[in-house]
Each structure stands twice: as C-alpha cells, then as structure tokens.
Specification:
Helices cover about 55% and strands about 15% of the residues. The chain is an alpha+beta fold and about 280 residues long.
Length: about 280
C-alpha cells in the first residue's frame, strides 16, 4: 500500500513538472509571436513609406508639367503636336524613368498616350478622381502583367486654376525597385520576391511564403517571399531545447527529493514499528 502511494506521488509530481514546463514553453512562444507580429507590422509600415515616397517623387515630376498655363491652353486647343513635344512624348522618351504617360481633356475626346494602349485607364479610380473631383490622386494599377505606380494631376494654369484635363504618369515596379523592397522586407538571399495582384494567386506557388499587401484605390500589390525575423526558427529551437532541459532537471530534482523523503520516512516508520 505504501509503495503504491509512493508511485502515485511520483507520477503526480513528474506530471506537474511536465505541465509546468509545457506552460512556460507556450508562454514563451506567445511572446515570440507578439514580437514577430510587431516586426511584420514595422516592415509593412516601411514598405508603405517607400511606396508613398515613390508617389511623391513621381508626383513632383507630374506637378511640374500639369500646372502649366501653356500646356493647359494646348490641351484646350487640342494641339497634339505641342502636347507630344512638350508633355507626353517628351516625358516618355526623356530621362525621367516614366513608363506610362496618359493625357486627356475632361471628356476624353482629346487623348495623347505612350506606354499604354486602349482606354481602360479611363475606368480607373485614379483617373476619375482627378477628372471628376479635380483632386491629385495616386494609385497602383496592373497592366500587361506588371505593376505600376501611378500619379494623377489635373491639367491647369500655373496658379492651379481653370482645370481642363488630366495627366497620368506611371512608373513600373522594376528590378531596381524590387531590390529596394527586398532590403525593406529582409528576404533570405536564396529566395525570390514575387509580385501578385491578389493574395489568392500566392497559393498557386505551393510554397510557404510570407506576404505583405499594399492597397490602393485601384489595384493591390502583394509582395510574397520568405523573409527573416528577429525571432527566427533558431530562437524557437533554442527555447524548445531549454524547456526540455528545464523539464529534465525538474524531473530529476523531484525524483531525488522523493527518494530522500521516502528513505527518511521509511527510517522513521521502522523506528516506530520497533517501538
């Protein structure tokens, strides 16, 4: 009977040690997840700042050509040669790193464009925000398999009055920009970074990828890759190893304490029996 009691006590104490170690391990993992989520949010914010800065740089170029009285007059007169020589073709072929130029008057009866075909861009939110609301607008659009940063400005006089049309400039997210984005995200060297229009497309790769989504008034852009986090797999493995070590030490200590208590209790019990 006494021996069975010892066994029960030993089992209970060992089981308690296991639960305690598992609880500590779980708490540590939750802490890691909090820090990892915080770092992912930081990467998201840095990426948004970079794209916003790209909007600003493209917008600076756009503003210099949109708020121009002579350009406004040329658009009103539908002077296609002047518009090409000084605006659309000039910007597209110049050293401005611009891949799309689209200019039109407010009813789209007069259009000059380079780098883009068709009139689908007139259905975009960025176009309609500029035309209908006379507001500066930025967006992301996907065209022919590539993602473009778009800046939209009303065409107006030097003093920003008498608005008569819209000028859209687009810059493709090329390898140079992707390299900068990679440094922001912190991808692992052996992995590529993929650009998608929707999160659903990521699943087609059949890979375990981390994603960061940048949303715009038109299209979204999904950056997918495997990136390093401060609390990486190494840290998780280290915590698991330490938890196992703590568990083993707890079990050993519990067993030793039980052995000492049992021997002492047995001696006292033997003395009582002899008396």
């Amino acid at each position: 009977m006494l021996k069975r009691t010892y066994i029960y006590i030993t089992i209970v104490m060992v089981f308690s040690s296991i639960l305690l170690s598992a609880g500590i391990y779980y708490i540590n993992l939750q802490g890691i997840k909090l820090f990892e989520n915080s770092e992912i949010e930081n990467k998201q914010e840095l990426l948004e700042l970079y794209i916003e800065d790209s909007y600003y740089n493209l917008g600076t170029l756009n503003m210099a050509h949109s708020y121009w009285t002579q350009a406004n007059i040329a658009v009103g007169n539908e002077d296609i040669e002047w518009v090409k020589d000084n605006l659309t073709e000039y910007i597209y072929t110049g050293d401005f790193n611009v891949d799309i130029v689209f200019l039109s008057n407010e009813d789209s009866s007069f259009v000059s464009s380079f780098g883009i075909y068709g009139t689908f861009i007139t259905d975009t939110e960025v176009f309609n925000t500029v035309v209908n609301d006379n507001l500066i607008s930025n967006s992301i659009i996907w065209y022919d398999g590539d993602a473009f940063i778009i800046s939209g400005y009303p065409i107006a006089n030097d003093d920003k009055t008498n608005k008569s049309g819209v000028l859209l400039l687009g810059r493709r997210i090329d390898d140079e920009m992707v390299t900068i984005i990679e440094s922001i995200i912190g991808k692992e060297e052996e992995n590529e970074i993929y650009l998608f229009e929707t999160v659903q497309e990521v699943s087609f790769l059949n890979e375990d990828l981390n994603i960061i989504v940048f949303e715009s008034i038109d299209d979204d852009i999904v950056f997918a890759t495997q990136y390093e986090l401060i609390f990486s797999t190494y840290v998780r493995e280290r915590i698991l190893r330490d938890s196992i070590i703590v568990l083993v030490l707890n079990v050993v200590v519990v067993v030793l304490i039980l052995i000492i208590l049992i021997r002492r209790f047995k001696k006292e019990l033997d003395i009582l029996i002899k008396q």
